[in-house]
Amino acid sequence: MTIQVRGRRRIWPFVVGGVIILVGTCLIAWTVWPRDELSTPAPDVSTPAPSPVAVTSDVLFLGNTFWGRYTHEYAMKSPLGHAYPFSRLHELQRDDYDAWISGLECPMKASVHMTAAEQEENLQFNCSPDFLPEAKKWFTAFSLANNHTDNQGVDGFEETKEHLDEQGIQYFGHYDPN
Predict the structure, then answer these.
(1) Is 26 exposed, middle or buried (0-12, 13-18, 19+ CB in 10 A)?
(2) Would the pLDDT of 124 be above 70?
(3) CA separation (Å) from 104 to 42, 65, 127?
(4) What is the Cα Rg of the chain in Å?
């Protein structure tokens, strides 16, 4: 009996090796065998993807715009009135640009009337909304993110946005960066 047990032990490495070879052969055959009828059809490459279209825009970004303090006083003394601060902007050829964007350096609260000296002394600004019809001819949008748009408080800031909305002038930004 001992002979038979030893014979069976000798055969197991051959059986395990044969099974491994058989499984390996099946796996290789399965991966390389052509399966055209089982695979999904290739996408139609005859239609080329549309080419991207270049889009350009000419935008003039300006510094801050301000018509308070002495600018307001000069404008009221000028025969041009509210058009005075904008009287030479035509030299920049507005029609060459799709948009003009500037910072608006002061709030516009209609009920607040401060002299230039008061604004100068306190560094608290307020601009008249009466200038906006002229500003609208030139400016597409104003940034409200600066250190003076809160000079008339939250009410003044909200009223400034209302005046800009009434004139169809876009705005963005906030005096509080948080």
Answers:
(1) exposed
(2) yes
(3) 58, 5, 10
(4) 39
